């Protein structure tokens, strides 16, 4: 176990050192991605400057929601997105077969050897929005709220990693699965808004089978003392439990697909 | 011209091959439009109209602006150009009987036409039946809107190609793609029409060609411009198209000098 962990950390170090060889390119990528997201967030800010609120959410509240969402996503995606979005090519090109004969779990190898430090822009933007919004919101900081804040972010990262793992695993069974990331990101974009503004079926979906509502909406609502539909007083516990639960589901699904994998390339 | 049309047809056919992917594209587009409509419903609250704009107009804006006039996927051109340069495929592209920017344009037109017919149209029909959609303000406005749609497509494609061609110098198409996304998200009026912008930002948006991608066509469609102003807007859009076309031709002529083919 100890040897495996040190090997995984070594893979991460190798990847980081490789990426740091092109520092200017890395910094430009951070700035560019933050700029892209800032463009989207500016649209939401523009609506709020005119209409004052969206479904009762003011700009500082929305800024906290967006910051939490972006930061949680970045923490999960840096371990998974770029690596597992390639699963289709990895499977169809036969590369996955070579991973299976290595003395290391293929998921762990893919995730750690591809650790992506290009999320610096996301992290700076997310943390910046949170830092700007928090002093303007009447949140009473207690050990419980602090635990919810930190635990909620970790849970958001775990949900992101789990969902991406589930979609990536589909390639082992379906072969072509990259297009599924498109529908994931469509729902992911929904989850950056308060779920309460959507029609009931979408609210239920975001709080159950597609648990992206727990990435930011549920924990931030609890922090702000806003009611969460269908969850009521269980919202706090649900926000913290959603991440670990999704990891269990994703791990089971990965194993399920791996058992049915019959080789896709040659 | 026949090669150009053949490339459009090839791209159209290629897109139609992926049946399950297309079903998910329709589903994804439905989700995206639902988000846009929900945002405006929540923003308007109980008010049927605010700042001289009705909720019904904003639903129509979301429906057409988020499908036919959407700018998000156009950033894929930048990604394609980047991949062509990174893999060295640009060498073989230069040998073909159609210029590379024209090939890109034809390829993207094929994709876009397919998207309009088999993704956007079903989504507009489905969401229109659920939420309602306003017709064009008049027959004249409808005609000018069609003209604006052509201009919108041309400006979007040319902007994508122009930014993509900068990959010849910066070699990092991924970053260019994100810059383009951020720029177009706001300045095209994709989600928020420019009439809701603060004065300073609105002036900047009006002075740039990106507002012809979504905002100007929709302003014409909804009758926010009279017919004379619509004609003027169309003429200005054509001017921007010509200017961007000239920029693409100039940048491409310079980019060709950057290509060094080693081996074969």
Automatic annotation (TrEMBL), chain A:
Key word Membrane present: yes
Signal sequence segment: none
One Pfam family it belongs to: ABC2_membrane_6
Keywords in alphabetical order: Membrane, Transmembrane, Transmembrane helix
Top-level taxon in the UniProt lineage: Bacteria
Coiled coil: none
Sequence intervals crossing the membrane: 20-47, 59-82, 107-134, 146-174, 195-217, 237-258
InterPro entries recorded: ABC-2_transporter-like (IPR010390)
Protein name: ABC transporter permease
Organism: Rhizobium straminoryzae
Taxonomic placement: Bacteria, Pseudomonadati, Pseudomonadota, Alphaproteobacteria, Hyphomicrobiales
TrEMBL record, chain B:
Membrane-crossing segments per the record: 23-43, 49-69, 113-133, 145-171, 178-197, 227-252
Tagged with keyword Phosphoprotein: no
Keywords: Membrane, Transmembrane, Transmembrane helix
Hydrolase among keywords: no
Pfam families: ABC2_membrane_6 (PF06182)
Protein name: ABC transporter permease
Native organism: Rhizobium straminoryzae
């Amino acid at each position: 176990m100890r040897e495996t962990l040190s090997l995984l950390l070594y893979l991460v170090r190798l990847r980081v050192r490789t990426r740091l060889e092109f520092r200017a390119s890395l910094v430009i990528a951070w700035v560019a991605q933050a700029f892209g997201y800032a463009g989207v967030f500016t649209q939401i800010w523009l609506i709020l400057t005119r209409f004052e609120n969206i479904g009762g959410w003011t700009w500082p509240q929305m800024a906290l929601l967006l910051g939490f969402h972006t930061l949680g996503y970045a923490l999960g995606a840096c371990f998974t997105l770029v690596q597992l979005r390639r699963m289709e090519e990895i499977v169809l090109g036969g590369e996955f077969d070579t991973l299976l004969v290595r003395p290391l779990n293929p998921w762990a190898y893919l995730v750690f050897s591809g650790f992506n430090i290009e999320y610096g822009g996301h992290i700076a933007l997310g943390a910046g929005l949170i830092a700007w919004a928090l002093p303007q919101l009447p949140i009473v900081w207690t050990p419980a709220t602090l635990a919810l804040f930190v635990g909620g972010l970790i849970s958001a990262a775990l949900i992101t990693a789990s969902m991406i793992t589930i979609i990536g695993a589909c390639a082992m069974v379906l072969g072509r699965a990259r297009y599924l990331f498109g529908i994931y990101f469509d729902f992911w974009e929904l989850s950056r808004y308060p779920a309460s503004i959507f029609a009931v079926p979408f609210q239920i979906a975001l709080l159950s089978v597609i648990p992206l509502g727990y990435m930011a909406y549920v924990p931030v609502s609890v922090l702000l003392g806003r009611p969460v539909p269908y969850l009521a007083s269980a919202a706090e516990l649900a926000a913290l439990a959603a991440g670990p639960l999704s990891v269990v589901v994703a791990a089971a699904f990965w194993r399920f697909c791996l058992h049915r994998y019959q080789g896709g390339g040659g | 011209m026949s090669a150009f049309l053949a490339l459009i047809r090839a791209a159209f056919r290629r897109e139609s091959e992926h049946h399950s992917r297309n079903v998910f594209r329709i589903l994804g587009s439905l989700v995206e439009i639902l988000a846009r409509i929900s945002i405006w419903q929540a923003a308007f609250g109980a008010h049927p109209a605010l700042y001289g704009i009705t909720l019904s107009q904003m639903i129509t804006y979301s429906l057409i602006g988020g499908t036919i006039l959407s700018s998000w996927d156009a950033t894929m051109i930048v990604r394609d150009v980047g991949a062509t340069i990174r893999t060295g495929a640009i060498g073989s592209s230069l040998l073909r009987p159609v210029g590379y920017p024209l090939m890109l344009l034809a390829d993207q037109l094929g994709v876009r036409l397919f998207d309009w017919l088999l993704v956007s149209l079903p989504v507009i029909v489905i969401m229109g039946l659920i939420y309602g959609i306003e017709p064009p303000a008049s027959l004249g406005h409808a005609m000018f809107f069609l003209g604006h749609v052509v201009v919108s497509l041309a400006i979007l494609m040319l902007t994508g190609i122009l930014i993509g061609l900068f990959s010849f110098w910066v070699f990092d198409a991924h970053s260019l793609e994100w810059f383009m996304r951020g720029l177009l998200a706001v300045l095209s009026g994709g989600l928020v029409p420019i009439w809701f912008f603060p004065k300073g930002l609105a002036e900047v948006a009006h002075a740039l060609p990106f507002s012809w991608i979504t905002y100007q066509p929709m302003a014409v469609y909804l009758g926010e411009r009279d017919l004379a102003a619509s004609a003027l807007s169309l003429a200005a859009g054509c001017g921007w198209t010509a200017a961007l076309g000239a920029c693409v031709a100039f940048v491409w002529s310079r980019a060709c000098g950057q290509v060094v083919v080693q081996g074969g």
